[in-house]
Amino acid sequence: MTDVTALHYTEEHEWIRLDGDTAVIGITDYAAEKLGDVVYVDLPNAGTAVTAGAVVGEIESTKSVGELFAPVDGEVVEANQAVVDSPELVNADPFGDGWLIKVRTGDLPKLLTHDEYRALVGE
């Protein structure tokens, strides 16, 4: 089980967990709930350079289509193929098996703490 209080967050509802120089990135439970049932996920390929704030993927649900923003600069080292094959993982386990991409990065930009993110979404 992921300790969500130890993660970093963005205002675009992504979470980031550092694993050495790699940022594991997904969307929060709040975002997954607001999207509704996720039916399609489009992620960048390994080797893709990403820039913080730029759109790097798409998440489609029964309610809407949302964009995935890169929270960090770096290079995608892995996209979660399990989520592409079974998009419902984003809803079922957004902080675990529903992670989206791993990005090799340097310094993290200013991100939100768990408490700051929960205050942002009114929880």
From TrEMBL:
Any one GO BP annotation for this protein: protein lipoylation
Task of the protein: The glycine cleavage system catalyzes the degradation of glycine. The H protein shuttles the methylamine group of glycine from the P protein to the T protein.
Top-level taxon: Bacteria
Keyword annotations: Lipoyl
Matching NCBIfam families: gcvH (TIGR00527), PRK01202.1 (NF002270)
Organism: Agromyces agglutinans
Protein name: Glycine cleavage system H protein
CC annotations in GO: cytosol; glycine cleavage complex
In-chain residues carrying the UniProt-annotated modification N6-lipoyllysine: K63
One Pfam family matching this protein: GCV_H
Family that this chain belongs to: Belongs to the GcvH family.
Manner of cofactor binding, per the entry note: Binds 1 lipoyl cofactor covalently.
Needed co-factor(s): (R)-lipoate
